[in-house]
C-alpha cells in the first residue's frame, strides 16, 4: 500500500508503506497535499534541528511574500489561538514564551507532581478494576492526563468535561486537508475555548490561586492572546498524545503477548518499555515544517517556500538506526526515537508525560495483572494524531 493518510487501512498499518518510502523515495513530493514527505530518521532528525526551517514563516514573511494564500477569514479565531502558542512561534517569540512557561516544567518541578499523578492513576485503575474493566481509553487513558494538566493549570473540576471535546475539535485542523465541517468545528471550539480561558484568567488575575493560569496571568509582558494560546496549547498538548500512547501501547502489548508476559514478570522493564511503545506505534505520526531558505535533503534540492512533512512514524522504524525495527523489544536499550521531537520545539511536557505513562502502566500492571483484550479495537480516522476509538478489556 502507498502513503494514503485518508485510507483507514493505511492509518491502521502505515509501516509497510513507510518502508517502501524509506527505500524508494525517502524525500518525495506528495501531490494531494503539495508537501515533500521525509521518511528517514537521519533526515527527520536533522531537519527538526535545522533553523533554515520553521513551524511558521510568519516571523520572516507575510503569506503573500511567501507565495501562499492567507487562511480564509472564517478561520481567524482558530489561527489567533494557534499562532499565539509557542509551538507555532519561532525565535525570538518562541524563546521568550518557552522560557516563561518552562519554569513550571523543569524535571524537578514535574517530579514533585509524581505522588499526585500516582494517586490519580491508582484511583482510576481501582475503579476500573472494581467494575471489571471496560473501555481503557475512556476510563483511564483520557482522564489521567486531562486531570493532571487541568489541575496544574487550575481548571475547576466542574469544567473539565469541556476540555477533551474542545481539544479534539481544535486538533482536527492538524490533519491533512481537513474537511470544511472539521474546519468549522475547530473554529467553533477555538472561539469557545478562548472565551472560557479569558474569563478564567480575568478571575485569577483578581484572585490568584496556586495554579499555572494564576501565575501566567500575573506576568505583565504576556499579552492576553499569548496567555490564551499558551493555556490552550498546554491543555491540548498536555493530554492528546498521552492518551494515544496509553491506548496504542496496550494494543501493542496485546498483539505481542510474549513481550507483555516479559513486562508482567519484570516491572523494572517499565522505563524502557514506555520508550519502546512510543517508538513502535508513534502517537503523533507526522509534523510539518516550512522551508525558509533553499536547502538540500538527502541529495534532493528543496526550494524556499515549500512545506515538508516529517514522518515520525517512519523515522522510528528506520533500520539504519534501530536493530530489527519492526520487533517490539521492551528492553531496547539503544532507542533514539523522536516521538517527542527534537531541536527548539522538543516536547516541553516530555518529563510529565513519562511520569504519567509510568504511573498508569505501573498501576495497571500491578492492579490488573491479567487484563486482557475483549475485542479488536478500531483506529480513529486521524492520521497525524493517531489513536484508537476505544480499547475494550476485561480484568
Ligand atoms: C507521550 C506524550 C507526548 C508526546 C508524544 C508529545 C510529543 C510532542 C512533540 C513531537 C512535540 C514537538 C512538535 C514539533 O516539533 O513540531 C511536542 C511539543 C510540545 N509538547 Fe508534547 N508530547 C507529549 C506530551 C506532552 C505533555 C504531557 C505536555 C504538557 C504540557 C506537552 C506539551 C508540549 C508543548 C508545550 C510543546 C511545544 C514546545 C515548543 O514548541 O517549544 N506535551 N510534543
Automatic annotation (TrEMBL):
Presence of the UniProt keyword Heme in the record: yes
InterPro entries listed in its UniProt record: Cyt_P450, Cyt_P450_B, Cyt_P450_CS, Cyt_P450_sf
Annotated keywords: Heme, Iron, Metal-binding, Monooxygenase, Oxidoreductase
SUPFAM superfamilies for the chain: Cytochrome P450
The UniProt record lists the keyword Oxidoreductase: yes
Family: Belongs to the cytochrome P450 family.
Name this polypeptide is given: Cytochrome P450
Originating organism: Nonomuraea longicatena
Upper taxonomic lineage: Bacteria, Bacillati, Actinomycetota, Actinomycetes, Streptosporangiales
